[in-house]
Please model this.
Amino acid sequence: MQKAIQITGIVKEDNVNVEYETGKHDSISAAEEELQQMIAHTEYSETVASVKLIKMVHNIVEDYTDEMDLLKRYPDAINQLEVLKKDYLSQ
Model:
């Protein structure tokens, strides 16, 4: 498990406050860039007349992607554990 940065942005869309939440990033600048891209996407979508960032909250969160990589490296690990469990319990 590692620590990561995730930003929650309070954005005003046509006088309605909406929360945007970025993914987990290694750097603040990457998280801020993602938030700006989300806002730009909303502006260009033409679904709302006005979009304005009101507040950003920087959160330090836990990132488990390093542990998920183990399952990618050992895709058959769960099946192997099930076989071991059956063998152990049948004794």
